[in-house]
Amino acid sequence: MVLLFGPLYHLHREEDRQRCIAEARRVCKPNGTLFVAFIGNDMIPLTEFCYDPDYFKGDSYDHDTFKVEDFPFVFFNLDQCRQMLTDGGVHITHEVASDGVSELLADRINAMDEESYRQYLKYHFYCCEKPEMLGHSNHFLFVGHISK
Q: Do residues 141 and 99 make contact, with C-beta atoms less than 8 angstroms apart?
């Protein structure tokens, strides 16, 4: 297995991202698995709004498309992630909203007792691979199969 937990959201040029995916494919054993993390664009405005009540009046995103400025990271929507991996020869087997809304609820989650926290995790795992919930996460985890 190969883990790509960071490179793709630090590389601004598509050709560099494709070169990274090609290198991951090269070092992965035949029929291996690739785990890839992305930072999702579509949840970032809500997250930033929680920290800055004036976020939506700011200029760090496109006010029509809601595309966030690619700084300090490069942000992607789900379709862009899928296309990037498919173009790189990765067969996607799982898509996961890895953190869901947990950053928005961090204080409440951290204050939970053990029983509540266990049930919250059960709920998170229940939701994190539902197609309709995937965009509601700051981070995506894609699992892909590499056939050689």
A: no
Please give the CATH superfamily to which domain 2-145 belongs: Vaccinia Virus protein VP39 (3.40.50.150)
At 37, is the secondary structure helix, strand, or coil? Answer: strand
pLDDT digits (tens, 9 = 90+) for 21-76: 999 999 999 889 999 999 999 999 999 999 999 999 999 999 999 999 999 999 99
CB contact set of 88 (below 8 Å; sequence gap of 6+): 18, 21, 22, 25
How many of the other CB atoms lie within 10 Å of CB of 15?
Answer: 8
Q: Whole-model pTM?
A: 0.93
d(Cα 11, Cα 9) in Å, to the nearest integer?
6
